[in-house]
TrEMBL record:
This is Protein containing YbaK/aminoacyl-tRNA synthetase associated region. One of its GO terms (molecular function) is ATP binding. It comes from human gut metagenome. Gene3D superfamilies: Bira Bifunctional Protein, Domain 2, YbaK/aminoacyl-tRNA synthetase-associated domain. The keyword Aminoacyl-tRNA synthetase applies. InterPro entries: aa-tRNA-synt_IIb, aa-tRNA-synth_II/BPL/LPL, Pro-tRNA_synthetase, YbaK/aa-tRNA-synt-asso_dom_sf, YbaK/aa-tRNA-synth-assoc-dom.
């Protein structure tokens, strides 16, 4: 936008350390130094927020942001504790509960139904009881990346990029790639894809999902039973409900 293209001044600082402990101690000193600078400058609205450090930037990074209604970014911020994070870096904690006994995995005909919203309307189930697929391709080699995530959530592409250590772009699905657009699911998925399971699906059951067959979906998907080898990672955009759980978990 217009704010981003304005000229700005940037300051870099570098330090060298003999151990991780020494680095962390010095980082904390610099962190507090910036807090004192902004306080002395009369800018109490400036807050330090956890931010994305990129694929090569290490495990900890903070940005100092001035809270204003006309800013260029959005942060997750708790007024009752010290948790603050850029939306790109904010952890998403979902409440994964089993919904009664595991149902049988059933193949259901769903003609001309391609979107997760339409399939949930057709089945009479809420979005959070579905497993949707979001497809990307790696910039380096165009390899497909299939992300499975709970139907009411969206993928945080910054988190996904950092996890893959690859830049990505939205996938262009063709007949040759072996994916069935609108009907992609985790069961019987075959092909040379990278598959990522968001942590929102861990331990869930009785979900609807694509059947990897044109015009069909599954109901009764139970992740532990039907996708036992899935490894889960947080690649979801944070929601107000997820942020409330994060804040509540901080002493």
């Amino acid at each position: 936008g217009l704010i981003r293209v304005r000229e700005f001044t940037m300051k870099d600082a570098y330090s060298f350390h003999t151990s991780q402990e020494d680095l962390e101690e010095y980082y904390a000193e610099v962190y507090e130094a910036y807090n004192r600078i902004f306080a002395r400058a009369g800018l109490p609205e400036v807050v330090a927020v956890k931010s994305d450090s990129g694929m090569m930037g290490g495990s900890v990074s903070h940005e100092y942001m001035l809270l204003t209604p006309v800013g260029e970014d959005t942060i997750a911020y708790c007024s009752d504790c010290d948790y603050r994070a850029n939306m790109e870096a904010a952890a998403s904690i979902t409440e994964n509960k089993k919904d009664g006994d595991d149902e049988e995995l059933k193949l259901v005909e769903t003609p001309n139904i391609h979107t997760i919203e339409d399939i949930c309307t057709f089945l009479g189930t809420p979005l959070e009881k579905s497993c949707k697929a979001v497809v990307y391709q790696q910039n380096s080699d165009d390899k497909f990346v299939v992300v499975f995530i709970r139907g009411d959530l969206d993928v945080n592409e910054t988190k996904l990029t950092n996890y893959l250590c690859e830049n990505i772009h939205p996938g262009v699905i063709t007949e040759e790639c072996g994916l069935k657009a609108g009907f992609i699911g985790p069961c019987n998925l075959s092909g040379d894809f990278r598959v990522v399971y968001d942590s929102s699906l861990k331990g869930t059951n009785n979900l609807s999902c694509g059947a990897n067959k044109e015009g069909y979906h599954y109901t009764g998907l139970c992740m532990e039973r039907d996708v036992p080898d899935a490894e889960y990672v947080d690649v979801a955009k944070i929601t107000p409900a997820a942020f409330a759980r994060i804040a509540a978990s901080i002493p």
